[in-house]
Write a sequence for this structure.
C-alpha cells in the first residue's frame, strides 16, 4: 500500500461483529510495515475487538476515538 497517498482508510460503519475485526485483520495482513490504517465503525463491540486484535497481532494502536456513535482507530502496521 502506497503511503504517499496518506493512510489507508477503512469505512466499516454499519457492519456488525465480527466483520469490523475481520476486515481490519485482512487489511493489516496485506499492508506493508509502517502503513497507517484508519478504521471507522459503529459496532459497539469493536471497542473491545479491534484493540484486542491489534495487540494479538503485534501491531500498534496509536489512537482510539469515539465521536457521534462512530468509533475510530488509528493503527500502525508493525
Amino acid at each position: 500500500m502506497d503511503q504517499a497517498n496518506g493512510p489507508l482508510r477503512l469505512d466499516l460503519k454499519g457492519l456488525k461483529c465480527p466483520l469490523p475485526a475481520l476486515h481490519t485483520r485482512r487489511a493489516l495482513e496485506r499492508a506493508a510495515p509502517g502503513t497507517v490504517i484508519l478504521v471507522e465503525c459503529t459496532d459497539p463491540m469493536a471497542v473491545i475487538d479491534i484493540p484486542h486484535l491489534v495487540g494479538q497481532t503485534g501491531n500498534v494502536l496509536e489512537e482510539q476515538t469515539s465521536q457521534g456513535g462512530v468509533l475510530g482507530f488509528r493503527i500502525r502496521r508493525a
Summary: The first helix runs from residue 19 to 30. The first strand starts at residue 8 and ends at 12.
